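Posting this for the archive.
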Amino acid sequence: MSFIYFDFKSFFRFMYLVFFRAKSIGCPMSPRRAVGFAIYFLVFPLFEMFTAICLLLDHVFFPGFRRTKLEKPLFIVGHPRSGTSYLQGLIAKDDEQFFSFRMVDAVFPSVLQKKAIAWIGRLDRKLGGPLMALILRRQARMFGKYANIHDVGLFSLAEDDRLLMHAVSVPLALLMTMNAPEFDWLFHFDEKARAKDRDRIMNFFRACLQRQAYFKGGNRILLGKAPAGSLRVKTLRQYFPDCRLIYTLRNPLSAVPSALDLGLKYFEAIGATELWPQQQARFYPFVRETFLYPLACLRDADPATCEVIVHEKMMRHLREVICAFYEKFGYRLSPQFDEILRPEDEKQRNFVSRHKTSLEQFNLTREQILADFKEVFDHYKFES
């Protein structure tokens, strides 16, 4: 297996685009963005050099990770704002059966890094937790205003895609370059990625999953989650032939404005709110494709290995939905996890979201959504 996973070409191309072709990709530079990108392009390569050394040292000090098997991993995919994070967080509580990733695990993918962080954590707890308290305060200050939209933090559950930032291959991290044809293949991975790039990225991805399994998996099942993975359904099944897939689906009339609002919040966070109207023109088709493409793929898949979960049903009949796919995939519903499920089921029946969005906010109409997502409405009979 090649140890060269970092995409130097994409990294330098990204640098060139944001500094020298910013206007042409709909991302004109501002002083704040210039400083931010300058810091990124200086710090990121240094951090990745450190990470690459640690990954290489894993082969010396922890060679057993290469023999770690990932049997029947469970991947949760779905379009943005369809409940993937909620479902992952709930299933992760069944920690006798599953293991997952936190953001810190994705940022530091090496076994050596993970063990060092675990040692620092133990030392911090012995000292009363001053380091953890500092991190949590900083996180609250940085991400607190997004808490009602998405749980963000170093110790929160993370999307598998975060691992691919080490290979400069995370599509949503390159959201500002959606207008650049050079990166179109990342947003349409199954269809447009070259075989060489697909092997480089997926072999690195699989090795990172093996490291996590070696570090904390035991005999448990990998629980992965990535909305962008909905455009890599064929690739996931190719590289993990025995995997199980859950696709979460929500009424487009609710999900689309919520997804667009999430995109807007991203641009607000990087100080580029004024760029959103133009970027929305590319982001909307991407969101639409995360509905239509995976559903088409799953129709041709073995039904015993995949499940479509409708968000609205999951929120009304949570325990019933969980029990159904547990039985289908052969998972054991332990009494301990069932004790978590029952009150959560009742809670979700009475839940009212504080996150309010509307189609009008993004210059969309109900008629446009019904037309653009006609296949979804026809097949799943959503309220329209």
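The CA atoms of residues 14 and 177 lie 8 Å apart. The domain at 8-113+156-380 is CATH 3.40.50.300 (Rossmann fold).
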